[in-house]
Amino acid sequence: MNKERIFYNILKNIKEVKIQGARNIARKALYAYFLIPTEKSKRLLLSSRPTEPMLARALKEMKKKTYKEILEHFDSAQDIINKNTLELIKNGDRVFTHCHSTNVSKALIYAKRKGKKFEVYNTETRPLMQGRKTSKELANAGIKVTQFIDSAAAIAIEKENSKDKVYATKVFIGADALLNNGIINKVGSEMISELAFIHKIPVYIIADSWKYSSEKIPIEKRKIDEVWDKAPKKIKILNPAFEFVPKRYITKIVSDLGTLKYEAFVKKVK
Ligand code: RUB
Fold this sequence. Notes:
It is a single chain. It is built from 10 helices and 10 strands. The protein folds into 2 domains: 3-64, no CATH class; 78-269, Rossmann fold. It starts with a helix and ends with a helix. It is globular, with a radius of gyration of 18 Å. The longest helix has 22 residues, at 67-88. By secondary structure, the protein is an alpha/beta fold. The site of ribulose-1,5-diphosphate has 19 residues, from helix 2, helix 6 and strand 6.
């Protein structure tokens, strides 16, 4: 395949969420840009998934660093995130997560390899079911996973259901964007974080600091047929891919800059 075909193939796969998650999108977009480093390809990549500041950051880094140097950041940041997450996990924890985040999955697998005994509750994440990817990845690494439908999130989180010990002790979710006053992550993240906050279950955002942006980040709206193929014309369907989670629901940001309260993270990342 020539460079152009590879570039357009990557672009298509990012748009169609075959390549998904902020980290994977940024890495693949970086590779595509490395193949064809023009203003046009930058524009195409930046508009492929609009809620992704890490993609913009990775492309910006190309001005001062080599492709290889930028790639190294993803791994060195993940190593630090893994170690910081390990310190948070206690034996017996029931970690609730949503969608698929490489930062979260890798940190959980690292903790398992380090001998931590915990289990994971995961929501399937309609309409594209990225939660299944998380469940498969974690189960393959020997972690006990229970998969819930999205509408059962409260059952997995609420302490009131403790009779059956079906409740989370911690929430770990990823982020697409880390902003000054909160984060953006897969739709459902606000509901989950608010619920956890009400029930005094800590919410940790496991994310690479390159996801930080001081700008206004748009929420991507995806095609309605993802929600309901051939729906009756009279019915309006909205399909926001992400949502904002205000910082008051967030216990700490676990990043390559440390495990920090929201304000401390923003201060350090700026
Ligand atoms: C994925 C999603 C992930 C973040 C962080 O959404 O919301 O939680 O992107 O992922 P989508 P990572 O499937 O629409 O891309 O930790 O992999 O960067």
